[in-house]
Amino acid sequence: MSFLIDFESKEKYVFNELLYHIKYEDGPLHTKCWIFSGCLVDGYGQLRINNNRKFAHRYSYEYYVGPIPEGLHIDHLCRIRSCTNPDHLEAVTQLINNQRMFKALPRKTHCKYGHSLHDAFLKKDGARNCRSCGLIRNKNRTRRS
After folding, report:
1. CA 87 – CA 107 distance, rounded (Å)
2. For residue 3, what pLDDT is reported?
3. Between these two residues, 70 and 48, which has the higher pLDDT value?
């Protein structure tokens, strides 16, 4: 008797493990989110197979869509980290994934000191620096020297 599991039965085991932990819930897209309710790490579902951990959304993408191309990340189009619906997952570059994430985040209107960000300096990465805070910093620098 061999203790090794052949690939096909291992795939069935992992697939059943994934399905066991899924709840179907309404999400922001036209189809329901498949919410993974098992172990979550930073909001992402994790499966454990033979002491190896794998993110549930990555497994779902590979099972239903195909292999993830090298260098690409899986983006949740619904913005829900625990969703494993392959219709809500897309393989994209890290840059596109970050751009979509920042676009989905609510924009701050004021810096932590209460200054308006309507005329903020825009950096190359899309971040904004408060113009008022920058002027105060520069003024303090010139006083010290």
Report:
1. 27
2. 36
3. 70
Cβ neighbours around 110 below 10 Å, total = 11
Whether the Cβ atoms of residue 88 and residue 27 lie closer than 8 Å to each other: yes
Contact 44, 82 (CB under 8 A): yes
Contact (CB, 8 A) for 40 and 88: no
Q: Which domains does the chain have, with CATH numbers?
A: 7-104 (3.90.75), 107-145 (no CATH)
Cβ neighbours, 10 Å, residue 92: 17
Contact 23, 37 (CB under 8 A): yes
Q: How far is CA 105 from the centre of its chain?
A: 12
* CA 49 – CA 61 distance, rounded (Å): 17
* Dihedral sign, Cα of residue 70, residue 126, residue 86, residue 33: positive
